[in-house]
Amino acid sequence: MDTWKKWAIGAAVVVVAGAGTRAAGLWGGSNGSSSDTLKFSFPTEIQTLDISKNTDTYSGTVIGNTGSNLLRVNAKGKAVPELAKSVKVSKDGLTYTATLRSGLKWSDGSKLTAKDFVYSWQRIVNPKTASQYAYLTSGVKNADDIVAGKTKVSELGVTSKGNVITFKLERPIPQFKYLLTFANFMPQKQSFVEKQGKKYGTTSAKQLYSGPYKFEGWNGTNNNFKLVKNDNYWDAKSVKTKEIDYSVVKKTETAVQLYKQGKLDRASISTPELYAANKNNKDKVKAPEATTAYIEYNQTGKNKFLANTKIRQALNLATNRKELVEQVTSGLSTAATGLAPQGLAKTASGEDLAKYVAPGYKYDTKEAAKLFAEGLKEVGESSMTLTITSDADSASAKTTLDYLQGSLQKALPGLKVEEKFVPFKQRLSDSETQNFDAVVSLWGGDYPEGSTFYDLFKDGSSYNNGQFENAAYTKAVNRAETTNALNDSARDADYKEAESALYKQANFNPLYFRSGYSLARPNVKGVIINTTGLNIDLKYAYRK
Predict the structure, then answer these.
(1) Contact at 8 Å (CB) between 503 and 361?
(2) pTM of the model as a whole
(3) How far apart are alpha carbons 489 and 507 in whole angstroms?
(4) Pairing between strand 284-297 and 508-520?
(5) Which residues of the chain have pLDDT under 50?
(6) How many CA atoms lie within 13 A of 39 on its CB side?
């Protein structure tokens, strides 16, 4: 427990105030005046309310504020009791015992029980659910075999008796308490889920809520909806705001205009133009996050160029990350040094993990051109066309691809870069189905420990969209999660080895560690901002 406590407090970065969000673009208040209603906005549509299947930040923000888990991350970054009144851990770290509070209810007034947690864990590992987050259960007894279809779901090491839930682990999992705060492991009522069938989570009416708020007004496609205080929530007395109105506002310029008109309490100014125009505004605040932007290469063999290691290495060497962040973000973000971003976690010695593991990505056009020419010769071609996909509804996507197009073509004679823009939802789908040559992706940490990033690219991972296999990388990550799970310094060294393996094979191309600024109305208080997990916790939010 002492090791856990030290790690948890040191790794989590949280800000309390009217602050920003990791990936949501903006949020606001009701005309800047005193009101029981707040107004928030997302830069793109909600995808789903299915707790087991959700993968995107915006749906996760709704799920995380309308649901609760056994633990909740507080304003100091600590995982503290929520629906559980206590969580005890055995000395060997292999058994977690959670005891629920008495009298817990769902939003419809029905009883919330320990069985609802067991069902949610069983549902996420069930191959029929096809959850992309099933990999997070690895290390729970029989989870890997269940996900692989080798063992019955009922054999999962998550059981209940009365109001007690017991988790049996096959190995110590350093981040396990944070999984007990994570939205995808929130309870689900089996009878409700099965009654809704395929419609479960497709509208606000097709979900039950265990958290501070209920979700209303979302029909699955519309762009205006709201959070309403859940009177059946166990800690309803702490929820000061009765209603939070949401809308989708896709243009950041529009949000800034609404902010200045007093119609929003927050607006992102994370584009170079908006930041330059508003950097002296007294309402400017920094929005902390642990997010990495990177290019994924399709390495399935469909693209013979990207199957060639030298060509991927050339593309990485031809990427001027420092100039990219200066020109595209005006220096707001930081040039990426690897997969794990700044501010995610600390090493055993107290150093930022990103700095410790950095394998040495550099900009070298001479070496890039040499490797590119060699790679083209190896695949029997004299030129190459590369299509890079990005989000049509992202304010910075166009300028990012424009920069990459010009700089890569200049550095690599014989290369032609084509830009492809698709809606956020389609980009997620195209990534999952390998319908791309190269795609710009962003990943925000789910918890403050390295595996939230390093699990992405293990062999067979559902998030390894490029579908590459790197034996040295996977071996290092697996060792960090098994043999060295409770040895902080050894685990750090494993992550460093994993970064080196990715770098040598050029399996992906890190671009920048994202950070930004917003204009925030100072009279909105109590918002908890996390760099990982639930990025905006509105439980205590209110207008002063």
Answers:
(1) yes
(2) 0.81
(3) 26
(4) antiparallel
(5) 1-34
(6) 22
Q: Single out the residue of 253, 236, 196, 192 nearest to residue 220, CA to CA.
A: 196
Relative to beta strand 95-100, strand 84-89 is: antiparallel
Report how far apart the first and last C-alpha atoms of the chain are (Å, whole number).
38
Residues paired with residue 173 on neighbouring β-strands, in sequence order: none
In 187-229, where does DSSP find H-type helix?
190-196
Mind listing the pLDDT tens digit for each residue in 265-310?
888 888 888 988 999 999 998 887 899 999 999 999 999 999 999 9
Residue type, 460: G
Lookup: tokens for 526: 């109590």
Residue 371, both tokens: 């490797």
Helix residue ranges, H only, 380-509: 397-411, 424-432, 451-454, 471-481, 488-505
320's torsion region: left (phi>0), alpha (psi -120 to 50) or beta? beta
Longest dimension (CA), the chain: 71
The span from the CA of 181 to the CA of 77, in Å, is: 11
**Angle (nearest 5°) at CA 519 between 517 and 524:** 120
User: If you write DSSP's letter for every residue of 478-510 in order, what string do you get?
Assistant: HHHHTTTTT-HHHHHHHHHHHHHHHHHHT-EEE
Please check whether residue 131 is in contact with residue 53, taking contact to mean a CB–CB distance below 8 angstroms: yes
Q: What phi, psi does 116 have (nearest 5°)?
A: -65, -30
Q: Which of 314, 244, 319 is nearest to 539 (CA)?
A: 244
The C-alpha torsion from 270 through 275 and 278 to 279, rounded to 10°, is 110
Residues 519, 257: contact at Cβ < 8 Å? no
Tokens describing residue 41: 């906005």
The token duo for 507 is 């399996």
- The CB-side HSE value for 274 (13 A sphere, CA atoms) comes to 23
Which CA distances in Å does 173 have to 91, 478, 484?
Answer: 13, 12, 10
Q: Which of 217, 297, 263 lies closest to 466, judged by CA? A: 297
